[in-house]
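B., you asked whether I could sanity-check this one before it goes into the benchmark set. Here's the sequence:
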Amino acid sequence: MVGIRYTGPTAPSLEEQDTLTLTAVALDIDGNVLAEVPVIWRVLEPDSVVLPFTLDSLTGLVTGIFAGPGRVQGIADGLRTSTITVTVLAVPDSIAGVEPTTVTVDELETESPALVAVVYDVRLTGQATGIPGRSVRFSIVEPAPGTPAASQVAIGLPGQPVGADSFTVTATSGAGGLALATARRAGGVQPDSAIVEAVALTSAGGVIPGTPARFVVRFITN
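And here's what the prediction gave me:
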């Protein structure tokens, strides 16, 4: 054996409760794989460090437990891979509206103040931490889509035109896990109010469990 080849990224990531498998092989002088030489995986962190994942030393299977990084390495017959930093990404536990959750669109205004939702993860310590980079879907639920009143209101991102689907818009959470949208007057006679709900989405587009954040938008008209 003269070499070891790791076949993955040097900084892989996975979400809490997800898994990934680290893969490396031993090589002979001609670059052929030595299937009979096992690669053993080990953690490079001190014993005092609580890892955010578990690592199967024989298979390289990593299972995410909580958000955070940890360093690992593969070893075969004394040869080592480069250091691999595995990062576990937090999965949102829920979403909440940031006050005020009732806003008013004055008679001469066309756009509401920002509707702000926070996507958060509850750590093992019980502390809630906002998560950036997550998709949040804002939807008008009242008036109900398809009704005459619903055609007079829309929702979009602050400062940007409303998209083709005026009843929903997807924002991305920024610093502190905050995501923003605004309700708009779409023309005609607006209803007295509209209700908007926001849900956090998984990377696959599913809805994170938990009560949606709810906002009330009041339209002031003549």
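One thing to flag: The longest strand covers residues 68-76. Otherwise nothing jumped out at me.
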